[in-house]
Design a protein that fits this description.
By secondary structure, the chain is mainly beta. It is built from no helices and 11 strands.
Length: 124
């Protein structure tokens, strides 16, 4: 069973930055990595995704220009750099991965493996 390990969450103030990391415990890599988040009382939503092989990225409109998803091939790790954080970014952030092609990058149904989630709390 593939296990994705996330790290980097925490409590910050509005305007601050955080960087989340995601990697498979085995070191295995996948075609596509996505970041999703779930705020209290809300459904999980897409944040960003990166094609690990070609580096193409896509973002939700709510984070475009503030968040950047990237990868480090040497470390088999994917990152989510979050700048200019807002209180509405408060959520549990999940990393997901897949090698399938049957759904768009923003559709969680296309992801096979999920991390345990990391809490990001942004205070005003």
């Amino acid at each position: 069973q593939v296990r994705l390990v996330e790290s980097g969450g925490g409590l910050v103030q509005a305007g601050d930055s955080l960087r989340l990391s995601c990697a498979a415990a085995s070191g295995r890599t996948f075609r596509l990595y996505g970041w999703f988040r779930q705020a209290p009382g809300k459904e999980r939503e897409f944040v960003a995704a990166i094609n690990y092989n070609i580096g193409g990225t896509t973002y939700a409109d709510s984070v475009k220009g503030r968040f950047t998803v990237s990868k480090d091939n040497a470390k088999n790790t994917v990152y989510l750099q979050m700048n200019s954080l807002k209180t509405e970014d408060t959520a549990v952030y999940f990393c997901a991965s897949t090698s399938r092609y049957d759904y768009s990058a923003s559709d969680e149904r296309g992801y096979d493996y999920w991390g345990q989630g990391t809490q990001v709390t942004v205070s005003s």
